[in-house]
Amino acid sequence: MNVIGKVTVLPQLPPGLARLSELAYNLYWSWTPQAQALYQDLDPQNWERFHHNPVRTLLDVPQARLEQVAADPAYLARYAQVMADFDAYMGKTDTWASRNAPDMKPVAYFSMEYAYHESLPIYSGGLGVLAGDHCKSASDLGLPFTAVGMLFHQGYFTQLFDKDGWQNETYDELDLTTLPITPATTPDGQEARVSVRIGNRDIHTRLWNLNVGRIRVILLDANVPENSEEDRKLTARLYGGNQELRLQQYVLLGVAGIRALRALNIPGDVYHMNEGHAALLSLERIREQVESGLDFRTALETVASSTLFTTHTPVAAGNDAFGYDLVDRYLGKWPGRLATTRDDLYALARHEQVWDNHLVPTFSMTVFALNMSRAANGVSELHGEVSRKMWNFLYEGAEPEEVPIGHVTNGAHNLTFTSQAMRDLLSTVLPADWTERLEDEQMWTAVEQLTDEQLRGVQLTMKREMIAFVRSRMREQMLRNGASAADVAATDTLLSETALTIGFARRFATYKRATLLFRDRARLSRIVNNPDRPVQFVFAGKAHPADNPGKAFIQEIYKVSQEPEFRGKIVILENYDMNVARHLVQGVDIWLNNPRRPLEASGTSGMKASFNGSPNFSVLDGWWREGYDGTNGWPIGEEREYADLNVQDDADAFSLYHTLEHDIVPRYYGTGTGDDSWAHTVRRAIETCSPRFSMQRQVIDYVQKYYLPLAARGAAVAASGGAQAREIAGWKTWVRQQWPYTSLSAQATLPATTQPGQTVPVTAQVNAAGINLDQLRVEAVLDRSGHITRVPLTSQGDGTFRADVPLKDSGLYSVGVRMVPEIDGLSNDLEAGLIKWA
Fold first, then answer.
1. In 3D, which of 226, 218, 284 has the Cα closest to residue 250?
2. Cβ proximity of 193 and 173 under 8 Å
3. 787-809 burial, b for 16+ CB within 10 Å, e for fewer?
4. Long-range contacts made by residues 754-760, C-beta under 8 angstroms, separation at least 24?
5. Adjacency order of strands within the sheet including 787-792
6. Do residues 284 and 194 lie in contact, with contact meaning Cβ atoms separated by under 8 Å?
7. DSSP string for 645-696
8. Is the Cα dihedral 820, 826, 828, 834 positive or negative?
9. Nearest to 797 by CA among 838, 768, 817
10. How far apart are alpha carbons 500 and 275 in whole angstroms?
């Protein structure tokens, strides 16, 4: 038929079930299994068919079925309990935020992707899951928080394997009328629209509202009739297309995102950019300030003072950079809008890189985000270290450890990924309000009270559910690819519930080394086929559509899984999404992760497995470097880097096999008791990882380390018409202008040897070139085996600075002297980006 439009006709719910529709439009149900069960029980077949979407399921339930359950006392009792819990959650005023941050200012959080649930496929992997979980915990904690993202109407992609195991992609158009979203409306009740000029076209954007517990998410949608067919594709696919499309998407997310908040009258005092995709929101915020009367530099300081940037990747390909010719095409009008020059604006994003064997200046989204914020962080302790080294060049003359990039180690939303069976078991030993105290490490010691039999029973139940899921998925795949009747029938015997089961699921980027396990096939075969102690593996993951090496890894695993010695014992599932992830993290015995250290920024899948009592077996990279304590899982390899990648792969593969054979398998199948038992490792995994790597702990860290200080600093800098911002901007301009004319010389009287606790005199002479001496910090810098100590020198008033510098410990010291400009109100010592060494 020729479709001219669509309309959603909601079912006529019986009075006793009237609020099922209301609940369907709040993703509270996505982390509440009892709520999901209400919809699943209405129509189990459609619940699966529609990817566990309660809105879509309700639309297809016959009226007779609704009347039937409305007369079922058991169903009505469950419904009443779910709604009572929902109302208690939504109406709760005694939240963590009300008790610990009662004056917290509103946060606006921007991310390219969000993973809330498989029925809303606007995510690709870990970054989206992290953003979705961040929103859920912001709701749990009662934060004043709004998220902004994109509504991709073809989502990411559906992954299908052909009969040879090669990944193919399909894109299905989402029917927005059946998603748990509603059109956003302006304060006067009109459907909200905003527009943004990209290049020489005005792009019109419809705004959608998504409720995630107590918070709102605003999604941008360019697929509207006012736009051309080409422009409607701006919100078609996540991470699809070429650089030109991506830059336009980043303009849309940043600029239209800010305009969406304004159109909906949603306040924001702190702006959190989740990865560099969102960096261009600063353009629109600066434009607003310039339009209100501020000059560009003052506006920049005002905006940056309240902005946080989180970087997620130490891999160069994950940090977008664009050629100036492309930037001119889509940002060429912005210097004029911001009352600045092209050179000054582009300098804030300049990153010289080798392209086609030539060194060229590029517009780096990460560099721009760092310059547009006054706080930045990596997503694990090690990632913070790697990031400081990676972006050290922006702070010429600084030591890597001084680069102002901190860290907040990622977490995961416990309730989204912990099975209901495990939650029920935990509720027998944890306090009644445990779900509101997930970050409380002391509370989790009660897990020690769980018996071996209790844990074994719950984990066996979940393993059986996972195996049934794997068999069903593999059967569908076989039938689609025209497999023989024998091969289809063989799916009924895939995996064994009594065998040690190891899971590996993630994005198939090559640095994650999904095929490391197969480096020694003969040894792997002996491990897998041990008649008394068998081991089996379940893999899942998507490669980016343009990543053929990643696809080759998938195909290699698939082909290994079809070899006679591994058939039924190694399985790779297609179409990795949140549904597959939940089944695996809840059902496997061990979670495997073997990235090439130090390229795993954080990783979160292993956290979710530990919540369910599945210990991690992982390289000491990302979060596991902080999480592993010797009792709660196992390491792969050593905590070091390698010059030769093949040597690293060989060493890590050997460690993997050795630990599996000599530590993990004997413990799993052994009869040890107490600390030597498998159950002890399971308990330790739950007890140590659940609080430390809960998303609640992560969001609390953001509140305390960044949101509260940034709100205070942003208010101070913007006060009195931006007086402090104007002072800082003017001072930076003056200092940068004079800096080339300054000079510094120094002398230190250093004996050949001395004793710990002695001091050495250090003197410096400064030519300040007109800069106030009170605005120069002159300091001695001591480097002892890579550890930096800074000792300020005292001004003598005539350009001379001196101090007796203590040598507290034994060792070889390198001593240097430098000066750094500073005034009150800067966010960090190196904000001006100027250092001069003697």
1. 284
2. no
3. eebebebebeeeeebbbebebee
4. 754/807, 756/807, 756/808, 756/809, 756/810, 757/806, 757/807, 757/808, 758/806, 758/807, 759/804, 759/805, 759/806, 759/807, 760/804, 760/805, 760/807, 760/815
5. 787-792, 776-784, 813-821, 836-837
6. no
7. HHHHHHHHHHHHHHHIIIIIHHHHHS---GGGSHHHHHHHHHHHHHHHTBHH
8. negative
9. 768
10. 38
Written as one letter, the residue type at 519 is: R
- If you count them, how many residues does the chain have? 838
Give residues with Cβ within 8 angstroms of 490, minimum separation 6: 567, 568
Q: How far apart are CA 812 and CA 809, in angstroms?
A: 9
Q: Mean pLDDT per segment of 10 residues, for the chain of length 838 residues?
A: 72 92 97 97 95 95 94 97 98 97 98 97 94 98 98 94 95 93 93 95 97 98 96 94 94 98 97 97 98 97 98 85 96 96 97 90 97 97 95 93 96 97 98 96 98 97 97 95 93 96 94 94 97 97 93 96 96 96 97 93 93 97 95 94 91 96 97 94 98 98 98 96 95 96 92 84 95 95 87 94 90 92 92 94
Q: How far apart are the first and last CA of the chain?
A: 78
- H or E segment to which residue 97 belongs: helix 96-100
Q: Nearest-CA neighbor of 836 among 760, 771, 734, 766? A: 766
The per-residue DSSP string of 54-84 comes to HHHHHHHS-HHHHHHHHT-HHHHHHHHHHHH
Does residue 598 have a cis peptide bond before it, meaning omega lies within 30 degrees of 0?
yes
d(CA 823, CA 728): 8
Tell whether the torsion through CA atoms of 659, 661, 667 and 672 is positive or negative.
Answer: negative
Packing angle, helices 296-304 and 281-291, rounded to 10: 130
- Joined tokens for residue 730: 């003017």
Q: Determine the 3-state secondary structure of 230 from DSSP.
A: helix
Q: Tokens 């954080």, residue?
A: 602
Those residues with Cβ within 8 angstroms of residue 487's Cβ, 6 or more apart along the chain or in another chain = 478
Burial of 245 (0-12, 13-18, 19+ CB in 10 A): middle
Residue found under tokens 């697929």: 223
pTM: 0.95
Packing angle of the helix pair 126-141, 695-702 (nearest 10 deg): 80
Contact between 615 and 681 (Cβ < 8 Å): yes
In 3D space, the residue among 786, 790, 812, 814 whose CA is nearest the CA of residue 803 turns out to be 790
Residue matched to tokens 């000029």: 197
Q: Are 79 and 38 in contact (CB under 8 A)?
A: yes
763-775 as b/e: b if 16+ CB within 10 A:
bbbbebeebeeeb
Q: What b/e sequence results for 60-89 when a residue is b if at least 16 CB atoms lie within 10 Å of its CB, and e otherwise?
A: bbeeeebeebbeeeebeebbeebbeebeeb
Q: How far is CA 736 from CA 393, 475, 729, 739, in A?
A: 17, 67, 11, 5
- List b or e across 329-359, with b for residues whose CB sees 16 or more CB atoms inside 10 angstroms: bbbeebbebbebeeeebbebbbbeeeeeeee
Q: Which amino acid is at 327?
A: V
Give the dihedral sign, CA 403/734/303/713: positive
